Amino acid sequence: MKNRIPRIYVDKNLKINEKIILNSSNTHYLIQVLRMNIQNKLEIFNNTNYIFLSKIIEIKKKIATILILEQEKKNIESPLCIHLGLVISKNEKMNFAIQKSVELGVDAITPIFSERCNINKNKKNILKKIIYWKNIIVSACQQCQRNIIPRINNVEDINIWCEKSNTNEIKVILDPQSTMNINQLPKNVNFIRLLVGCEGGFSSSEIKQAIKHKFIPVKLGPRILRTETAAIAAVTALQIKFGDLLN
Fold it and tell me: Which CATH number fits domain 81-242: 3.40.50.2000, 2.60.120.1440, 3.40.1280.10, 3.10.20.340?
């Protein structure tokens, strides 16, 4: 299949020679934004390790229909599974951290409430944010060629999230006061639970509670990083050491 053709996400099983009616959002993107027309080709991904070469065969009443032409297996997922616990920060910072973390290969993101998280905790407001963040994740996958959509979980309290663990998982919390860095983590790691704070960082009690639940405090260097920078730097460093970045 050719690279550099438009990509869109379709949330359904696909097969060759199948006709798919696109939703209004995808249709608008292809027809109004990219100015595509009948017979133009595009690439579809659907949260599997396959991509599907397709072409537009009909545009009617602002709804496009495509035909699936070919499929190709394409797995570019990192061997390192990172579950990012990201304390909720202000809109643009949170959006940016989510977008770039997805591009760098995280598998899952859980938004976190912490002591210094100054965010409206109204359920309706949080639900809107989750939906918005899901769209950011899909858009990031569309851009960076990932075919598997990282999941975004419901918001959790920091203590509840820290209590959880999976087999063979190491747990890391960013702490600028730590004397340990990422290069000192155990070797041959495949699963990491990474906790990143908001603008005010973590309280001393939160650090102690995380350590109680077997989190390893690490620092990213001598400088204090903004929350969105810290998330990106940490995921990058972990992917270089344990994953597929630079490989």
Answer: 3.40.1280.10
> What span, in angstroms and rounded, lies between the C-alpha atoms of 82 and 108?
7
Among all chains, which residue has been given the structure tokens 């643009």?
92
Whether the CB-CB separation of 236 and 245 falls below 8 Å is answered with yes
Task: Give one DSSP letter per residue of 109-150, joined into a string.
Answer: EEEEE-TT------HHHHHHHHHHHHHHHHHHHHHHT--SPP
> Which residue bears the tokens 């133009």?
40
* Tens of pLDDT, residues 138-162: 999 999 999 999 999 999 999 999 9
Q: What is the pLDDT of residues 6-23, one digit of tens each?
A: 999 999 999 999 999 999
- Output the pTM of the full model: 0.92
Q: Measuring CA to CA, which residue among 11, 12, 16, 13 is closest to residue 1?
A: 16
**How far is the CA of 19 from the CAs of 52, 56, 74, in angstroms?**
12, 10, 22
d(CA 70, CA 52): 6
